[in-house]
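ok new one. same drill as before - structure tokens go in, u give me an amino acid for every spot. 303 of them this time. try not to just spam alanines like last time pls lmao
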């Protein structure tokens, strides 16, 4: 549980030991990092006495704020997917191929990683995947209901993927809020775009870095639609269409979006974090199109 400062027990030296989340400023005892206190798999905040979480049934927990906009089944995900394809099109990066997007459980995602012939460089906790093999993937057909602190009654379906192009499907982990699902989708779609456009053998830093930039740009357009430097060729309002169609990005959702942006920007890993910062600096200086052109020619970011 999360206590008020005055309630946090002192250590042997009589001092208060306290950890603080760098974005949310949530203060907590170090002991909660090892006890069974639930941590939201999306926003990282710890469960507290006055904020109970929902168990997703695969070891993950979700706070109620993240649950509010959670994307729970494959059908649920399609409007978001269309909005992100529109976003790509608005940046002159139209994708003509029909790539299926499937929402999956954690187990199905991990099985799909094993089923791919080419190795992946991915995060310790993979949340999305761009597939190129013909596999059978267990997709979520119908969202589970929320029972007592638990999700029940999910219906899944084994879907056989057919290879029509170099990308057979994009998989995204279910149960994450709309903005995080979209950020993952935008990232994976960029892997797909690179593959379909013939970019090959990029280093993890370059490939993950540029994919994180697309993810970041999409999030930015969702969270602060007025402040985004859109390329001059973009079609009006394409990038913010998903939120405007829904008619709202609530204050809670906006704050979550800012957290996901923060996570991308300050990621400590060399490929994702270092790659993002290098890619972002290049895109800021030369623009996205020139940066991509340079990557195609040299396999590295322009400096
Ligand atoms: Zn959360
Ligand atoms: Zn990636």
């Amino acid at each position: 549980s999360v206590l008020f400062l005055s309630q946090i027990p002192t250590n042997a030296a009589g001092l208060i030991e306290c950890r603080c989340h760098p974005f949310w400023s949530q203060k907590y005892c170090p002991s909660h990092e090892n006890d069974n206190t639930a941590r939201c798999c999306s926003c990282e905040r710890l469960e507290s006495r006055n904020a109970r979480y929902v168990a997703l049934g695969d070891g993950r927990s979700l706070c109620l704020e993240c649950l509010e906009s959670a994307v729970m089944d494959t059908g649920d995900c399609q409007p978001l997917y269309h909005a992100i394809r529109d976003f790509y099109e608005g940046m002159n990066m139209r994708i003509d191929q029909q790539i299926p997007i499937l929402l999956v459980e954690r187990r199905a995602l991990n099985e799909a990683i094993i089923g791919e012939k080419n190795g992946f460089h991915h995060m310790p906790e993979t949340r999305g995947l761009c597939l190129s093999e013909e596999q059978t993937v267990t997709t979520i057909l119908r969202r589970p209901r929320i029972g007592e602190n638990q999700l029940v009654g999910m219906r899944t379906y084994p879907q056989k993927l057919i290879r029509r192009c170099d990308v057979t499907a994009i998989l995204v982990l279910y149960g994450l809020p709309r903005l995080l699902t979209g950020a993952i989708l935008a990232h994976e779609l960029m892997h797909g775009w690179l593959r379909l456009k013939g970019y090959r053998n990029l280093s993890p830093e370059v490939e993950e870095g540029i994919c994180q930039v697309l993810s970041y740009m999409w999030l930015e357009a969702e969270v602060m639609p007025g402040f985004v430097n859109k390329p001059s060729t973009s079609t009006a309002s394409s990038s913010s269409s998903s939120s405007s169609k829904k008619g709202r990005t609530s204050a809670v959702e906006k704050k979550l979006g800012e957290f996901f942006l923060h996570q991308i920007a300050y990621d400590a890993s060399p490929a994702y974090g270092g790659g993002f910062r290098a890619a972002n600096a290049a895109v800021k200086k030369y623009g996205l199109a020139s940066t991509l052109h340079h990557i195609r020619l040299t396999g590295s970011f322009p400096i």
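Residues 230-247 have pLDDT under 50 and may be disordered. and btw The chain is about 40% helix and 15% strand.
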